[in-house]
Amino acid sequence: MALAITQSDIAGDGSVMLFTWNALDANNNVGNAIAFAQWADRSVQMNGTFNAATVVWEGSNDGGTTFTTLTNPSGTAISHNAAAMDAVTEVCQLARPRSSGGGIAQSIIVAAVLRRANPMRT
What we know:
By secondary structure, this protein is an all-beta fold. It is built from no helices and twelve strands. Helices cover about 0% and strands about 50% of the residues. A hairpin with a 6-residue loop joins strand 2 and strand 3 (about 15-25). It is globular, with a radius of gyration of 14 Å.
């Protein structure tokens, strides 16, 4: 089942947004995808009770038919089983978090901060 997203305009003008998925668990282990190509700077943070879960940050360029694990600037897959934060290297059409292997106590919050290349400030 896909997990809903909350979003906040943290710059006040749409140029920097915070997207949050509360809380990936054993039953709701896939976050709804967000449009991702318009963001120049991208970071994702994973925090909470992992309870043996692994969380990956995935991207898709085919409208969400297939997703692939994205990487940080050092080329390492964004895949964690403990709290972590990564910059995201790839620009892709859609992105989402997905967890696997967690127990009943799993409750992971995933937050992505995204900044536009051309701020819409006036």
